[in-house]
Write a structure and sequence with these properties.
There is one protein chain. The chain has no helices and 9 strands. It is mainly beta.
Length: 133
């Protein structure tokens, strides 16, 4: 499955596959993408994923989000058998050259990852002053 996110000034392509680099099956998190003059914001739902089990990587123009949810049981009990496996979340995006991947900011709160990807200075709209003379 491949999703292309078209923005006013570029695009981000989302690639959602059912097996990760290790070949293990994973789930594709739902992601909302918003754009304004300064860049794009991605909101990814990653329920059960903590900061230490989350990986956000940029390699060239590729942005990858991966995380493993924590499944906890009662504190006083030990799991001896379990059919439910903790979900592994993975989603990859191809970033437009108009975006500055070196300045991405990430925040995880209440199971929602917020990535802010600013536009490169040369890609931002600017006003040109016209002189009379």
């Amino acid at each position: 499955m491949s999703n292309e996110v078209q923005t006013r000034h570029g695009r981000a392509t989302a690639e959602a596959t059912q097996a990760g680099a290790s070949g293990a099956p994973h789930r594709v998190p739902p992601v909302d993408v918003f754009e304004d003059e300064s860049g794009i914001t991605l909101l990814a739902d990653l329920p059960g994923v903590s900061r230490d089990r989350l990986s956000v990587r940029v390699d060239g123009d590729s942005l990858t989000i991966e995380g493993t949810a924590e499944v906890t049981g009662p504190r006083e009990m030990e799991l001896v058998y379990g059919d439910a496996q903790p979900p592994v979340w993975r989603r990859a995006f191809t970033l437009s050259r108009e975006l500055d991947a070196g300045r991405i900011e990430a925040q995880l709160k209440d199971g929602v990852l917020r990535l802010t990807v600013p536009k490169a200075e040369e890609a931002r709209p600017r006003r040109i002053e016209v002189r009379v003379g």
